[in-house]
Structure formats: structure tokens, C-alpha cells
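Lab manual, section 2.4: Encoding a predicted structure.

Procedure: take the sequence of the chain (94 residues), apply the prediction step described in section 2.3, and record the output as C-alpha cells. A sample record is shown.
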Amino acid sequence: MNEVLSRLRELLFPSVPGVAVVAVHSEGNAIRVEARCTPIGAACPDCSHWTERVHSSYLRSPADLPAAGRSAQLVLKVRRFFCTATGCGRRTFV
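Recorded output:
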């Protein structure tokens, strides 16, 4: 299965740094690919301050598209971060 995950990562995310495929489920006519972001932190979109303080995480399904005649669901686990800059008006961001 590690070879399958490695190949899926190459096919699905060839130019997306910081994304890891963590699971692939196949049931009947459906394929579910679970992925997560790998960087330990992110820059605030308002002030560009770097933070590693995680607020929470949740699952997102950005698109459900057919693949090879089967329904395919991409599920991303994303994290919400706190902006720790004192002068920034944004408290959290994804």
C-alpha cells in the first residue's frame, strides 16, 4: 500500500509542496483520498507574521470529481492558526 500512496502523491500533488497523502479508501464505485498539510506553521495573510501556534483543524472537501468512471473525493485536513503578532487585527487564519 505504501507504493500506492507514493504513486498517488506523485499523480495528485506533483507541484504542491507541503501536502501528504495519508490514506486511500476504495469502496464500490468510490475512491476517497485523504491528505494533510505538512508545514509546521504559516504566515498570517494580513501581516505576514510567521506562527506555529495551532488553533484547531478540520476536514475540507474542495472538489468531488469523477476519476476513471468512479466518483472520487479529496479530503484535506487543514489547520487554523493563531496570529501572534500584537498589532495584527486578524486572530486566526487557515
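Check your result against the sample. The radius of gyration is 16 Å.
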